[in-house]
Amino acid sequence: MSFESFGDGWKFSGASSSSAAWSLCDTRQGQELLEIRYATVNNTPEQDAICEKCRFHGKLDNTETAIESLNVYPFGGESSILRNMTLRGKLLEVRMDIKPGKGEVIRDLELEELFFPGEFAKAEIIRSVPEPGQKWQLEELPLTGEVLYESSQPFAVLLLTTGDNMQIELGSGGDWWRMHGAGDTFWSIKRTDDGITVRRRVVAIAAEEAVERRPWRFNYYVAWGKKTQMRMLVAPGDTVITPDLLRAAQSECFQAPAVRKQLRKSVRQQQENSGNVQMILPDVKSCDDAGHLERPGKKQLRHWDLDELFALYSWANRTLGENRIFTIELPETSIFRNLPSGRYLANPPTAAMVRES
């Protein structure tokens, strides 16, 4: 028996092809949007591992699906790859935990190859998470030639747009410091007649170098939807909240514990009221304060906080309940406001349910 998650015009399931582990499809157009292929640990493809767990769990309100998948290599020290994936509306979040087997170390690790099928009218990129206080820069990549991006450094965001204005956004996760990995890392975006492929080699340590035995964790997200999607308007009876984070929490980093507490407090204060709630927030920011990640001993770890808004959006919509809607509006000048991720935050929750496939 196998399962899939489905929602408003999409489905996400284990792929039938031997080349891909997971598949995201646009069910209205009958087109595949994304193939999540396999990882490679110490030059051994994930296809050689055994699936020990694959669980789909739907929330009672049918707006969220949690998927837990565990693949274990059945030889050596039995290294493993654990994925926790969450689908809410047109947003997929992926967390990967790669654990070395007994007596083993990870010298070479390539995350799943991501394949976006089809022809694209535009490809844009945010090359890096900026220095704290600096602006985000979205630039267009020429769709000429095979190689669109090739570097030892990760990119922050890739945005692909089709001729009919369907957009799909890949973000490299809020823990930017993790994505730099270790050793001779390699990131690439390549185009063929069939689509666009993203590769992410995050660990590549030479055999003669000393290496500690440690697990690795990586996060990324995928958001999608029409570029022309409408935003939810404030209606009579709705509440608009504009928190003064600098005054209340001495920070505007959404991952800072004081900021997280303040934002959730603002939502709880609306539980006894009626009507929908819109929260107007400052732009997504980068930050170096490792204390926000509960790693104060590290002092500086570069992170950015969009995924914390995903968590706030999910939590607040569950907390308000009774068919009330919570949305987040970013500033007019924000790059993310006009990306699929920003449109997701600014609109009501939509379905993400589970069914047998």
Cα-to-Cα separation, first versus last residue: 8 Å
User: Would you tell me the overall average pLDDT?
Assistant: 93
**Total number of helical segments?**
5
State the helical fraction. 10-25%
In CATH terms, what is the fold-level topology of the largest domain?
Answer: Beta-galactosidase, Chain A, domain 5
The strand count comes to 27
User: What ranges have pLDDT less than 50 throughout 5 or more consecutive residues?
Assistant: none
Q: Class by helix and strand content?
A: mainly beta
**What is the overall silhouette?**
globular
Care to describe what's here?
By secondary structure, the chain is mainly beta. The protein has two domains: 3-226, Distorted Sandwich (Beta-galactosidase, Chain A, domain 5), CATH 2.70.98.10; 239-356, no CATH class. Helix content is 12%, strand content 40%. Helix 3 (257-268) packs parallel to helix 4. The longest helix is centred in the C-terminal third of the chain and has 15 residues, at 306-320. The radius of gyration is 20 Å and the shape is globular. The mean pLDDT is 93.
